Amino acid sequence: MKKTTIAIGCDHAGYEYKEAIIAALEEKKVVCLDKGTDSGDSVDYPDFVHPVADSVEAGLADLGIIVCGSGNGAAMTANKHQGIRAALCWNNELASLARLHNNANVISIPSRFISVEEATSMVEIFLSTEFEGGRHARRVNKIACT
Question: What's domain 5-140's architecture?
Answer without folding.
Answer: 3-Layer(aba) Sandwich (3.40)
